[in-house]
């Protein structure tokens, strides 16, 4: 077992951290570019395990993706069957590509890491079947591995989807829907809907590519059939990956700045400044540089994170170091993320001597004095960065398999040490 001793904060921070591109934007732009009617260019695309898996899968499906300096040039081709899609542990790959594969002229087999076999896929497969696509399951029903038997075209029409376990079920169908003969009307039938900003991101990117989307009725999205424009786009920095760095200012005191912060964004990380202020930070946006300043005091709070579940592990790490208890709500769907994040956080916080209880839809964390020990990461990049954050203040936190951060941030350790040495860190 590979252990990385999380460095203690040397004192108040003063750092500029240039965070690489957004995973969610990169993988959406790649899918849209692959389905477009002309070549496209991605600037600032993230290179990480999840985006390289997406690029590799699209290449297997007939897209040409070339490096041009730091850009990705994407030349669409007819979607090809007799292909395989290796999903790794990437939700965006396993949920976005089945609807693309349905357009292929033959079978496309989807497989992934062992941990990926536990992630829910059923609503995507049921929706494709409703749309007339044959799907063959090879393991536990509603999970990887499976084969989508493309027939070269999808009629489209109306479909009901329960997306309470993941917004990606909706995004994945919408992204390919303009290529269905009749487009798609998708109605979410579940009681809760997580990560709405990520669905809004999908809608925004479709519209930017010239696709007509009607989202005027609650929980219903209608995508008109039509061409998808090949575009030249720039990917915003990954604001959820910025979170551990910005939060480090609350743990260690001092200031951490992240350049390239968008003035408006559909990334859920756009909610961070408001959340960090409630936790005790001061935030400022000077041009496109977000500064977060802390004085070492973190306030516990009651927070519904259903819109931004992705940042919950980072907020949970702050909560264990706070001056009062924290209740995180609205994040039952985290049980289907890279690991059962509610169980993983509760187990690891408890292992260090903290107190964390799972509720039906979140966690209650009561600060207690912590001591060092192994912080298990369960192949979850955000568990690894949460351990690093706690280790800034608690001596001897040994983060297991820190390399798992490569899922979305391959140089996490380098960026983290650069931040601590106070130098400007350029990705
Ligand atoms: O569409 C996307 O890019 C994502 C949607 C969210 O998924 P869930 O709705 O499953 O939480 C988020 O947590 C994930 O990291 C990325
Ligand atoms: C839930 C996450 O990833 P995925 O895209 O694999 O669902 C995440 O990055 O926090």
UniProtKB/TrEMBL annotation:
What biological-process GO terms show up in the record? amino acid biosynthetic process; aromatic amino acid family biosynthetic process; chorismate biosynthetic process
Pathway given for this chain reads: Metabolic intermediate biosynthesis; chorismate biosynthesis; chorismate from D-erythrose 4-phosphate and phosphoenolpyruvate: step 6/7
Which cellular compartments is it found in? Cytoplasm
Q: Where is the Enolpyruvate transferase domain?
A: 10-413
Q: Which CDD domains match?
A: EPSP_synthase
* UniProt keywords, alphabetically: Amino-acid biosynthesis, Aromatic amino acid biosynthesis, Cytoplasm, Transferase
This entry carries the following GO cellular component terms, namely: cytoplasm
Q: Which residues form the active site?
A: 310 (proton acceptor)
Catalytic activity from the UniProt record: 3-phosphoshikimate + phosphoenolpyruvate = 5-O-(1-carboxyvinyl)-3-phosphoshikimate + phosphate
What the entry lists under InterPro entries is as follows: Enolpyruvate_Tfrase_dom, Enolpyruvate_Tfrase_sf, EPSP_synthase, EPSP_synthase_CS, RNA3'P_cycl/enolpyr_Trfase_a/b
Q: For 3-phosphoshikimate, which residues are the binding ones? A: 23-24, 28, 166-168, 195, 310, 337
GO MF term set:
3-phosphoshikimate 1-carboxyvinyltransferase activity
Query: Which Gene3D superfamilies does this UniProt record tie to the protein?
Result: Enolpyruvate transferase domain
Chief localization class?
cytoplasm
In the Enzyme Commission scheme, what number(s) does this protein have?
Answer: 2.5.1.19
Q: Which Pfam families match?
A: EPSP_synthase
Listed under subunit, the entry gives:
Monomer.
The UniProt similarity line reads:
Belongs to the EPSP synthase family.
Q: What does this protein do?
A: Catalyzes the transfer of the enolpyruvyl moiety of phosphoenolpyruvate (PEP) to the 5-hydroxyl of shikimate-3-phosphate (S3P) to produce enolpyruvyl shikimate-3-phosphate and inorganic phosphate.
Protein's UniProt name: 3-phosphoshikimate 1-carboxyvinyltransferase
Organism encoding this protein: Cellulomonas terrae
Give the gene that encodes this protein: aroA1
């Amino acid at each position: 077992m590979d252990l990385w001793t999380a460095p203690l904060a040397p004192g108040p921070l003063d750092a500029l951290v240039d965070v690489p591109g957004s995973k969610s934007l990169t993988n959406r732009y790649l899918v849209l570019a692959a389905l477009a009617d002309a070549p496209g260019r991605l600037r600032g695309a993230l290179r990480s395990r999840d985006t390289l898996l997406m690029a590799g899968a699209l290449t297997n499906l007939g897209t040409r993706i070339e490096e041009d300096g730091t850009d990705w040039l994407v030349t669409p081709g007819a979607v090809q069957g007799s292909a395989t899609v290796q999903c790794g542990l990437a939700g965006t790959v396993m949920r976005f590509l089945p609807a693309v594969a349905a357009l292929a002229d033959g079978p496309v087999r989807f497989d992934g890491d062992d941990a990926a076999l536990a992630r829910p896929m059923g609503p995507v497969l049921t929706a494709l079947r409703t749309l007339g696509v044959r799907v063959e399951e090879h393991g536990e029903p509603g999970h990887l591995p499976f084969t989508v038997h493309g027939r070269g075209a999808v009629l489209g029409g109306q479909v009901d989807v329960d997306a309470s376990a993941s917004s990606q079920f909706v995004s994945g169908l919408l992204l390919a829907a303009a290529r269905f003969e009749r487009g798609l009307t998708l109605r979410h039938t579940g009681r809760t809907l997580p990560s709405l900003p990520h669905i809004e991101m999908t809608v925004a990117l479709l519209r930017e590519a010239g696709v007509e989307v009607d989202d005027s009725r609650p929980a219903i999205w209608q995508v008109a059939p039509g061409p998808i424009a090949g575009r030249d786009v720039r990917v915003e920095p990954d604001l959820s990956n910025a979170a551990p760095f910005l939060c480090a200012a609350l743990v260690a005191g001092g200031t951490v700045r992240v350049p390239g912060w968008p003035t408006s964004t559909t990334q859920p990380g756009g909610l961070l400044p408001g959340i960090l202020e409630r936790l005790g930070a001061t935030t400022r946006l000077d041009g496109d540089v977000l500064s977060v300043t802390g004085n070492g005091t973190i306030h516990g709070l009651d927070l519904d994170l259903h819109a931004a579940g992705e940042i919950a592990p980072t907020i949970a790490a702050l909560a264990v170091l706070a001056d009062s208890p924290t209740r995180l709500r609205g994040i039952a769907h985290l049980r289907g993320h890279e690991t059962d994040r509610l169980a993983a956080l509760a187990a690891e916080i408890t292992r260090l001597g903290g107190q964390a209880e799972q509720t039906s839809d979140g966690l209650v964390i009561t600060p207690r004095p912590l001591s060092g020990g192994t912080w298990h990461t369960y192949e979850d990049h955000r568990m690894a960065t949460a351990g690093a954050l706690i280790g800034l203040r608690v001596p001897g936190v040994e983060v297991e398999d820190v390399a798992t951060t490569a899922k979305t941030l391959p140089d996490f350790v380098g960026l983290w040490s650069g931040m601590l040495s106070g130098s400007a860190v350029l990705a």
